[in-house]
# Entry
Amino acid sequence: MNVLHIDSGILGEHSVSRRLTAAIVAQIKADQSDVKVTYRDLVSERLQHLTGAQIMAPADLNEVDPALASDIRTGRQMLDEFLAADTIVVGAPMYNFSIPSQLKAWIDRLAVAGKTFRYTEAGPEGLAKGKKVIVASTRGGHYSAGPASAMDHQESYLRTVFGFFGITDVEFVRAEGLNLGADQKQFAIAEAEKTIAEGNVLRLAS
# Structure
């Protein structure tokens, strides 16, 4: 099984989302013997945000600026990694009610007509069917229920965009209320790690 491990938290060793994605991948590897993991750190690799020059670039990259050509090749490689993966583990902290810009930049490289989706007479069709996505979702407050749920443009966006690619099997492991005190933070992390350890997420990656 091919696993694609994506991190986008900007806090390095202090990042809870990175801690949870590492735990998820470790459990998958412990549960299955034939796992191949491809890892991408979207913060340290500094993927450029989508530009018009990238979209308008000719097929022959020898005709464009070397820096732009390198950036396009990196984006194509990331798309190939995504298409080759059976399970995608994504670390997605909530920043200002949405996802990190680094994660959005990665998603923009995946949204390619003819690769992950196509338009038909019946409407858009996702072309990445059959994959599983496990998202480690971390939030400073509580957004999964209650009045603040209307401000959640993190999980709702990820479910929508992966669904647009044809992926309907999207699971979230949440650690919420991380900024509401040390006790709440430790409780939230412990509950998320318990969910992972009990295999409630791994069953989706089998």
